[in-house]
Amino acid sequence: MEKPMKTSRLEAFSDGVLAIIITIMVLELKVPHEPAPTALAALWPIFFSYVLSFVYVGIYWNNHHHMMAVTEHANGAILWANLHLLFWLSLLPFTTGWMGENHFARLPTVLYGVNLLACAVAYYILQLSIIHLQGSDGLLAKAIGRDRKGKLSPIFYTLGMVGAWFAAPWVGMMFFVAVAAIWVVPDRRIERVVGQQQKSR
Amino acid sequence: MEKPMKTSRLEAFSDGVLAIIITIMVLELKVPHEPAPTALAALWPIFFSYVLSFVYVGIYWNNHHHMMAVTEHANGAILWANLHLLFWLSLLPFTTGWMGENHFARLPTVLYGVNLLACAVAYYILQLSIIHLQGSDGLLAKAIGRDRKGKLSPIFYTLGMVGAWFAAPWVGMMFFVAVAAIWVVPDRRIERVVGQQQKSR
Amino acid sequence: MEKPMKTSRLEAFSDGVLAIIITIMVLELKVPHEPAPTALAALWPIFFSYVLSFVYVGIYWNNHHHMMAVTEHANGAILWANLHLLFWLSLLPFTTGWMGENHFARLPTVLYGVNLLACAVAYYILQLSIIHLQGSDGLLAKAIGRDRKGKLSPIFYTLGMVGAWFAAPWVGMMFFVAVAAIWVVPDRRIERVVGQQQKSR
Amino acid sequence: MEKPMKTSRLEAFSDGVLAIIITIMVLELKVPHEPAPTALAALWPIFFSYVLSFVYVGIYWNNHHHMMAVTEHANGAILWANLHLLFWLSLLPFTTGWMGENHFARLPTVLYGVNLLACAVAYYILQLSIIHLQGSDGLLAKAIGRDRKGKLSPIFYTLGMVGAWFAAPWVGMMFFVAVAAIWVVPDRRIERVVGQQQKSR
Fold first, then answer.
1. Whole-model pTM?
2. Non-local CB neighbours of C188 within 8 Å, separated by 6+ positions
3. Residue environment code for D58-82, b if the CB has 16+ CB neighbours within 10 A, otherwise e
4. Å from D177 to nearest chain C CA?
5. ipTM
């Protein structure tokens, strides 16, 4: 029978990958060769998309942090579900760069939405695989509860992609910004459960 | 009610991001294709700005290290205040590169000062959010005391930006170098408090 | 006499290097300057080779994780065997990029196989040097058992290289994909031994 | 009075920086656009200098690892001495790239020696600042003993620089390779002291 292992090194590796993703995105902000204000101003689409993706990676790090706080053990399925999530997150520097470089053109904006959606699905799979190990009365399942945000996000991403393609890219961006705004508020449900657990010790 | 969490993973993630920022700045030092001394000499402005930013990231790492030594728990506000600080620090490779590439021209030098100021403000917000959690009689509040350096730095950055814009870039640089010099001396106030705490255990 | 040391920092350093390798490979996916679908489609060989190498680094991280779970101490030979493994893994971004950039041409595909083989040999040496320290009745030796996968992989890599050179590159790729598929299933042997050990405590 | 702090985060940050330095050096190995053997063969000087610098960063990581194993506390001076060492190590990707790119021309080879010498001096200062804190009868002082390798290396680097400048670059390289070879043998003195300490517990 398969036995679970400690999650500490899983966290360390994920922190490393997330730290690198969040930082190498800034390399897309190519240093202009002229000291002119116009050279700087021309970078605004890349800068704006950098800020948005920075916030998204920050959200994933925060949520990952909270998720692992109620996850003591991991099995092989969880290790791979985690790598799967990191894979989609690792594509963010590319899709962010393509969208910024092309001033939020239609196709790159839709692809950015596809990437965000894939990250959300991968996160959901990771969550499921942990709940599968802990059982439906485990800490994570309790902490997540009805998971409204987690269910709302993919709908918003899809609406954003549809909006970007059929209406205008800025319509899509509004949805992507909205989801980020919803998540920046930290996940108090898990904090609550962790707090109660610490009290009862 | 929101419950605080351990800061260990916050530290690990911040260490990762700071380590990457401090290291990728060297990528702006593009390897010359000729082995000539002139090719090397032409890099001095980029090298000098690299050294200055290396020292600044080192200062932030040191101070962050000391701050976290008296901070055992974090809440959502602290997590985001920390990411906000990392965001501004992550722009340093860009502003450093722009300033060095353009031989300390006026606008890039002022922008470098803006970046330094933004980092200082973000650090101050992080400090406030920790003190808010610990209370005004908490360890960090005691350790910081009147926080003279923390209050002096933004004034110096502002003077530097004004000087770089209206007088000459090197005037601004003098202020930026001066702030770095003030901070390189490690924060003995916190070391003192930590020391006393360890003694009393 | 030489004395063994704790492996915790060995793990931290390896995690860092593996996290960077897995993430910088995405930099080979150069952001196209046009928002056209053709510009994106042209990237498929680089994307496919990125996915394969991502999976391979993930496999090495997983196996390294499992190996270190049954290795408490390290000596100088183990430290260098570990660095030797990291060296060959650090070349993967280069060989992956060369293969993708040249649409799986014959020579780059063979070189990719050489790199994979070198990683496998380096991993095997690391395994041997740990078993040498622990003794043949140690935890790792027990956990590995007959090591069928470890013995099969180099044969498959060799067949892949021969196939890529004499038949066609896609023949070689099939072998490289097959080995990855075999390994994605996590190493249950070690999980079993760790589990039994935890039970007996 | 200044009080010492734990070294664990110092180690984590140093591991991060060293992991990034050792990995981004491979980015100098630019992926050729042709699948031809000549395109690969043209990279040999960059490859060779990459291998040498990889070994050097590996040596520094190993020795740093051993040094920190006998160092429990750090003060401000140690933190900055450590950052100073990381600074010179962070320049290795640049000097390595310049030397490789220019096929071991005279000036780049001498500069590489300068960089190695600066790293050695910075390491020595870090060692001194730890011994200053621990006292001359402390663990590190005992572990190092007469420090023959540490005293021999700067002499060899200097001979290498002189040889590269006045005789031929390959003469210098021989000295740089020789020092690496001397150090690859791990520092058994410290391992011995740590071993004895663990025994006596």
1. 0.90
2. A2, A76
3. bbbbbbbbbbbbbbeebbbbbbbbb
4. 17
5. 0.88
